[in-house]
Each structure stands twice: as structure tokens, then as C-alpha cells.
Recover the amino acids of this structure.
């Protein structure tokens, strides 16, 4: 690349987008006016000549200074397999309406509704379900908005573009719900020059979602059309092993597809991610394998502990001990993802050398 045009955007295009390792987190969209998000892709609208390099600083797939990033999370000498945390347990919503609409235990939706009602946050950055186009980030302002976003997508959404819109609109006291890559982008935002700290100060709560990988929306859409499924999708699910199937719910009921057919649709950049449990969040949430209707909850920060404790004390959320075998499996799965990431990263560097 010509050094004279080697600004941040050119570097990001060269190092991430052209390599096909963009994970569509949306962090650059709206941060730089020349990036947009459309139908499952980050799109370069025009060339940027800014010398701030903010888009490169915030991207979770670009090279970064690990020592600086580690400062975001205070090491608490806890279980290193899933990052620093204060508490881990299983939980579920006490509200039947939410439980019926949720993917698993309804903890995320319940926490957000509770946080808005108590004035802890004013709105939440979530992922809309999509429809004729891909799921995308949205600003949820009330209970109805939040419940409309309930459920897992299993594909990337460009969700942090909605955070940049909210910040541009001078919104305060935001919550952000996102995947590990999006939580990392938020962590990097705090280090971003010249205005990262001010932008992060708008976020009052970060809720991370466990993630092994995310699917490329367009490839998934093409796959489902090729197998004759064209009606609107209501829900996706992946049952725990040994099922090895990908479930899709439409108005006609559940359809199942071999998981081996779905894995080739995983975003290439997901292979480089070493974080399964969203270690940069205030609270991380996933399923409880083998126990329907419960979430695994990892409380990581003082802020996360305060809102979770209040929601439990006010009987909005029920909690119980996470079985040891589930905790052990979570640690094993997290370590497996770290090892796969290490191998994929070394292979990519080897090919480029």
C-alpha cells in the first residue's frame, strides 16, 4: 500500500475488510461517515482522509496493544478460563410474559426493562429481528421495544452502528447488548483517541452474550432459500450436543438442518476470536446446557453486580447455583475457543509471511 494514502480507513480496508475477516460488529459504522451497514455487510461508501484513525483503533479484528486493552478489566485472580468475574450462577426471569418470548431464561430482557423502569438506563442498544433484510442494531426505549428484540439471531448484526447513532444524538445512560467482539470494540473505544473516553461514558451497562461463532447473514439466507425455506423466520436455536442440528422456527413450525451444513456459513473472522463469554462486559449471559429455561450469568463488574442484585431483591429475576458440571463445561468450551483462535491466528500470519 502507498504510504501516502495509508490512513486509518485504508489500513482497515486492507487489514480487515479485504481479508474477509470483518465480523460486522458495526463499531466503525457511523463513527466514520464513510462506512455504512446494509443487509449483513459493512460497506465502504467513500474514501476518508481523516488522520484520527478511529475506525482502526476500535476494530476488534485489527491488531491492537494487548497490554493497554487488559487495563480495561481489573484482574481479580478468578477463574482465568472465562476472564475476571465476581459471581457466576444460573438465573431466569420471574415474569411469565418475558419467559415466553425469550430464547432461554429471559435474563437480558428482564434486566433491561428493570434498568429502564428504575432509571438506571434511558435506552438500550439491541439487535432487531430483521425481516426482508438482515438483523441490525436498534435503540430500544421501552418494554415493548425490548421484547420485540428478544431471542438469538445467530448472525452478525452491525449492532454498534446503533450506538454511534445514539451518541451522535446526544443520548446518555445507555445499555449495550452484544457479542464478545462488540464488547471488545467497546473496550477499545475507551482507549480510542481523541474522544473514546467521552463516548464510553455514555454507556451505563454492557451485557455480553456467550458466542462460539456468528453466521454470515447473506450466506445463511441463501442456504435457507436453496433448501426451500422462504417464509419469515421467527426463531433460531442450536440444541446442546449430541444433537448436531440447527433449528429454524417459522409459522409452519420447526425445521432442522445438519449443523455440518451450517458451519461453512460462519464468518471467517470468528475463527480469530478467543473470547466465548464476552469478558469485557459488566454482565455476561448464556444458556445452561441441559436445563431449559435458565441462563448462565457471569457478573464481572461492580456496576453489573449492583443492577443484578437489585433485580433479584425486587423479585424480577430468580437465581440458583450453577451445577459444577455446567461450570466445568463452560471453562472447557472457553479454553477450546482460545486454542482454536490461537491456531487460526498463527495460520493466517503464516500465510501472510
Amino acid at each position: 500500500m502507498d504510504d501516502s494514502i495509508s490512513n486509518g480507513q485504508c489500513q482497515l480496508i486492507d487489514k480487515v475488510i479485504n481479508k474477509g475477516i470483518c465480523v460486522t460488529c458495526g463499531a466503525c459504522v457511523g463513527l466514520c461517515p464513510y462506512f455504512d451497514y446494509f443487509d449483513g455487510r459493512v460497506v465502504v461508501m467513500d474514501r476518508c482522509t481523516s488522520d484520527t484513525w478511529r475506525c482502526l483503533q476500535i476494530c476488534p479484528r485489527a491488531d491492537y496493544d494487548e497490554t493497554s486493552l487488559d487495563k480495561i478489566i481489573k484482574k481479580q485472580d478468578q477463574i482465568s478460563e472465562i476472564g475476571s468475574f465476581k459471581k457466576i450462577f444460573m438465573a431466569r426471569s420471574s415474569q411469565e410474559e418475558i419467559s415466553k418470548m425469550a430464547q432461554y431464561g429471559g435474563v437480558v430482557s428482564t434486566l433491561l426493562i428493570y434498568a429502564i423502569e428504575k432509571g438506571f438506563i434511558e435506552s438500550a442498544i439491541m439487535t432487531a429481528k430483521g425481516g426482508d433484510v438482515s438483523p441490525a442494531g436498534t435503540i430500544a426505549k421501552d418494554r415493548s421495544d425490548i421484547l420485540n428484540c428478544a431471542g438469538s439471531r445467530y448472525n452478525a448484526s452491525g449492532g454498534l452502528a446503533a450506538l454511534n447513532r445514539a451518541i451522535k444524538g446526544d443520548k446518555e445512560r445507555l445499555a449495550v447488548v452484544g457479542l464478545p467482539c462488540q464488547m471488545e470494540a467497546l473496550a477499545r473505544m475507551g482507549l480510542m483517541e481523541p474522544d473514546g473516553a467521552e463516548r464510553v461514558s455514555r454507556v451505563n451497562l454492557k451485557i455480553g452474550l456467550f458466542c462460539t461463532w456468528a453466521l454470515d447473514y447473506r450466506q445463511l439466507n441463501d442456504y435457507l432459500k436453496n433448501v426451500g425455506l422462504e417464509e419469515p423466520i421467527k426463531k433460531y436455536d442450536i440444541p446442546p450436543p449430541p444433537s448436531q442440528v440447527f433449528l429454524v422456527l417459522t409459522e409452519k413450525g420447526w425445521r432442522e438442518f445438519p449443523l455440518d451444513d451450517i458451519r461453512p456459513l460462519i464468518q471467517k473472522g470468528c475463527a480469530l476470536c478467543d473470547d466465548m463469554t464476552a469478558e469485557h462486559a459488566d454482565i455476561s449471559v448464556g444458556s445452561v446446557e441441559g436445563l431449559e429455561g435458565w441462563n448462565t450469568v457471569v457478573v464481572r463488574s461492580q456496576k453489573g453486580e449492583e443492577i443484578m442484585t437489585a433485580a433479584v431483591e425486587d423479585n424480577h429475576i430468580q437465581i440458583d447455583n450453577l451445577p459444577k458440571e455446567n461450570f466445568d463445561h463452560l471453562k472447557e468450551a472457553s479454553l477450546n475457543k482460545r486454542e482454536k483462535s490461537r491456531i487460526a491466528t498463527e495460520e493466517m500470519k503464516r500465510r501472510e509471511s
User: Anything to note?
Assistant: Residues 324-352 form the longest helix (29 residues). The chain has three domains: 9-64, 80-215+275-346, 217-264.
